[in-house]
Amino acid sequence: MRFRIYLYAIARILFGLVLTFNGAYNVIVYPKFLACLENHFERTSVLDFEFVEFFLVLVPFTEFTIGSLLMIGCYTRKVLISSVILFLFIVMYLLDANSEILIFVYAVFLLMSGILLRKDNYNLKSMDYSRDSYQMI
């Protein structure tokens, strides 16, 4: 049992580290990210709404925030639920844009988020998110 708790904590921290670095990299090369996003947005046929493009611009910042919160272990379940929703939306968008490599990367992110969310009974090494926020500080 102790091994599973440590394995979950290591997987959560490593996944958070990967998301933090991915988000930070995309923020550092933000003009390149926006150009790539514009290239994908030109190829979409179903999800070519303006508000979709507005929300996709915020993806690197959201990845950085999700990764940071996962590494810290704060609100783990809520963060994993939001990451599943975010990555599911990104995978659907990339399927519409026909970007095979990025589909694979974000599908792995989606799978890892789902596994960590499913196995949250081993989440004993992070902060208790069932308490109020002021009690955790």
Give an overview of the whole structure.
The protein is mostly helical and 137 residues long. It has one domain. It is built from 7 helices and no strands. It is elongated and about 50 Å long. The two termini are 28 Å apart. The relative contact order is 0.17. The mean pLDDT is 83.
Rg measurement, Å:
16 Å
Helical stretch tally: 7
Shape call = elongated
- Taken in chain order, the helices and strands follow as HHHHHHH
Assign the structural class, choosing from mainly alpha, mainly beta, alpha/beta, alpha+beta, or little secondary structure. mainly alpha
Q: How many separate structural domains?
A: 1
Helix fraction? over 70%
Task: Extract low-pLDDT stretches.
Answer: none
**C-alpha end-to-end distance:** 28 Å
β-sheet strand percentage: under 5%
How would you sum up the major sheet? none
Question: What topology does this entry show?
Answer:
Blueprint: H1 2-28, H2 30-43, H3 50-57, H4 59-72, H5 76-97, H6 100-118, H7 133-136
Helix pairs in contact: 1-4, 1-6, 4-5, 5-6
Give the structure's gist in a few sentences:
The chain has 137 residues and is an all-alpha fold.
Keywords:
mainly alpha; 7 helices; elongated
